[in-house]
Design brief:
The protein has 652 residues and is α+β, with helices and mostly antiparallel strands. It is built from 17 helices and 25 strands. The strands form 5 sheets. Strands 3, 4, 5, 6, 7, 8, 10, 11, 12, 13, 14 and 15 form a 12-stranded antiparallel sheet that branches. Strands 18, 19, 20, 21, 22 and 23 form a 6-stranded mixed sheet that branches. Strands 9-16-17 form a 3-stranded mixed sheet. A hairpin with a 3-residue loop joins β13 and β14. The longest helix is centred in the C-terminal third of the chain and has 22 residues. The N and C termini lie far apart (120 Å).
């Protein structure tokens, strides 16, 4: 009996040793290679692929394979995609009335972050990532940068299975998208506090869809939160949101950055380079811009207009009123001419969104598409945000937001600021074509932001005040040197002035800044471009129509919000003279026509605001200091006080 037991024990030890040995195999070079671990079927262990991705799975191929098995969503992540930089953007797809105080809407971005997927033992981690601090990987200090910038883990997933060919890993992402994960939540801590949000209700929250495309994955979630004080329908004590999560693979080779120069207006991204030869971490700042590369580099180098490899395309929101589509498209494509100055033709294109029949997969929240969102909201505003690659400043996508009631703001300003000299403005029923022209210019302004341009408040100071009373000049040059200024209407023109343009338009600075930021340069590094870029600035440095004025320069008479002309005293004198005429006739144009006081009350309140602005432009002269940014090698001073004579005139 003992002999039989000893034989069985020896046999079992042999089998166990043999099983372990099978987990490793010899490579051709004689080295031991690790293969996928033996797959077990016990709960919590790594299973066979067909036990996880069953015959009932509905599979969507793309960046990752997405499998839907019953109520579970599985990601099958290729090992080749682990560690790759991806941009994750969280947007609101559907929103209740009033949430966020009127400046949040369907399409609003609530978070933008860089992520990557990492395998750790028997788990896959979704980790945040930052390029705020960098160093060349070939330098020793890069190791210090890595350990002193440890990345947060946003979520951890058990490995469910490996693919049959051992080239990918399967994880269950259902919990990520069905629970309240702060990093991708549509509700910030501020909003949670405002509306006294208690928790996410799992019984009223669910995953709508998960769709995989070649470079991105789009997830739609319906979330309902228990909240003591919701923004609407308070008796429900609930806030319901539809959230869209976009994750897009960033280019393997980042776009070559262009170094920022404060003398030209651009939004920026910044990094601290610890591998710099400076005796400190060197801050590097790059402009934000779309990647435009010529299809035919040789023709481009000869000075011919060339189409870009990938043009900038904006789609109109399916909810856009039909009578406004023409003007929105014109506002987008007004930027074609400045791009031609930079050597590109057909660089920016406006299109209607496809119908469900034309493209059932199309979604306004899909990060592949840039949209002009038309929002049914009483908010009076428009904005032009964008999403960019933090490694290089490359703009990936943008959504222009137009709030419906903003048309009312422009009608009112048109009446108040131009009504004295412009008979067409003396009505509550402004000509639809003129309303369309106003909207066109607002869209062009917001698209400018989405191209990377901040406000240029010096552009309105570029033209002499009296030139804005000249019809020929205004028709040719507009009322400011850039659409990116807050110069909306010509409030300087006086009654009797002929052929005046009252509404803003594109200007010479818009061509200049587009050429500076977007002209394609054959250079091996960002630093190699600097000499050429600096030369272009110096060529225009003494011409005020090419000057950039920071909005933050509150002390600079050149860079004032809503100002016009190069002399605030003279401009505001004209403006107030016109405003007195409007005030005298305001009731004739409003309450006398409507037989109620609603419009008169609204317009009179705004008239007081206009008067305050005109006075405020002159107030800035007192103690005013001109800011003209220069490099040390440029002639002239950077800061110059306004003359004593002009300050005394302003006080008077």
């Amino acid at each position: 009996m003992k002999k039989i037991l000893l034989f069985c024990l020896a046999a079992s030890l042999f089998c166990a040793t043999n099983t372990t040995a099978q987990k490793k195999k010899k490579s051709k070079k004689g080295k031991t290679e690790q293969t996928a671990p033996t797959q077990k079927s016990k709960k919590g262990d790594i299973k066979n692929y067909n036990q996880v991705v069953t015959n009932d799975a509905i599979t969507d191929n793309g960046l990752f394979k997405v499998h839907k098995v019953d109520k579970k969503y599985l990601y099958e992540i290729p090992f080749s995609k682990l560690g790759k930089d991806m941009l994750w953007v969280t947007r609101i797809s559907k929103i209740p009335t009033g949430l966020g105080g009127g400046y949040m809407n369907a399409g609003s971005k609530t978070n933008e972050q860089l992520v990557h997927w990492v395998r750790f033992q028997d788990k896959v981690l979704l980790k945040g990532k930052s390029y705020d601090n960098v160093a060349d990987s070939s330098k020793a200090i890069s190791a210090s940068v890595k350990v002193n910038n440890y990345e947060p883990t946003l979520f951890a997933f058990d490995i469910e299975a490996f693919s049959t060919d051992s080239t990918s890993v399967v994880i269950d992402v259902t919990s990520l998208f069905s629970t309240d994960v702060p990093a991708i939540s549509g509700l910030s801590s501020r909003l949670r506090k405002t509306y006294k949000v208690k928790r996410l209700d799992p019984q009223r929250s669910f995953i709508n869809s998960v769709k995989s495309f070649p470079e991105n994955i789009e997830v739609k979630q319906d979330f309902t939160f228990n909240a003591s004080e919701p923004s609407t329908l308070r008796a429900t004590e609930s806030i319901s949101l539809q959230i869209n999560q976009s994750m897009i693979l960033l280019p393997e080779e980042p776009m070559q950055p262009r170094i920022f120069d404060p003398r030209v207006g651009f939004f920026t991204v910044s990094q601290y380079d610890f591998g710099s030869d400076e005796l400190k971490a060197d801050e590097k700042t790059y402009i934000r811009r779309w990647r435009l590369e010529p299809k035919d580099p040789e023709a481009y180098a000869r000075g011919e207009l060339v189409e870009p490899v990938k043009p900038i395309v904006y789609y109109l929101d399916p909810g856009t009123p039909e009578n406004l589509k023409e003007y929105i498209k014109q506002g987008i494509e007004d930027w074609k001419k400045p791009f031609e100055t930079a050597g590109f033709k057909n660089a920016i294109i406006a299109r209607d969104a496809p119908t469900p029949e034309e493209d059932p997969e199309f979604s306004p929240e899909d990060i592949r598409y840039s949209m002009i969102r038309y929002v049914a909201s009483t908010t009076r505003n428009a904005v032009g945000p964008s999403v960019s690659d933090p490694r290089s400043g490359e703009i990936i996508e943008s959504d222009i937001i137009w709030y419906h009631n903003h048309l009312r703001s422009y009608r009112n300003r048109y009446l108040l600021e131009t009504g004295a000299a412009n008979p067409n403005a003396r009505t509550l029923n402004t000509n639809p074509k003129e309303i369309g022209d106003m909207m066109r210019m607002v869209i062009a302004h917001e698209v400018g932001h989405a191209l990377g341009y901040p406000h240029n408040m010096a552009a309105s100071y570029a033209y002499p005040v009296d030139s804005l009373r000249n019809g020929e000049f205004t028709q040719k040059n507009g009322i400011a040197a850039s659409i990116m200024d807050y110069a909306r209407y010509n409030y300087i023109a006086q009654p009797g002035d002929k052929n005046i343009r009252f509404i803003r338009q594109m200007g010479p600075y818009d061509h200049y800044v587009t050429n500076w930021g977007y002209r394609y340069l054959e250079a091996d590094s960002p630093e190699a471009e600097v000499t050429t870029l600096n030369k272009w600035i110096l060529e225009k440095a003494d011409n005020p129509i090419y000057k950039f004025g920071r909005q933050s320069s509150r002390f600079d008479p050149q860079s004032q919000t809503e100002g016009l002309g190069d002399d605030p005293v003279k401009a505001s004198t004209y403006g107030i003279k016109n405003l007195k005429y409007v005030a005298k006739n305001l009731s004739n144009w409003t309450s006398d026509q409507t037989n109620n006081y609603d419009d008169l009350e609204e317009l009179y309140g705004e008239l007081l605001g206009v008067y305050s602005r005109y006075v405020g432009h002159v107030v800035t002269n007192i103690g005013g200091v001109f800011e003209n940014l220069k490099t040390p090698k440029q002639n002239g001073t950077v800061y110059t006080a306004l003359s004593k004579t002009k300050q005394k005139e302003s006080m008077k």
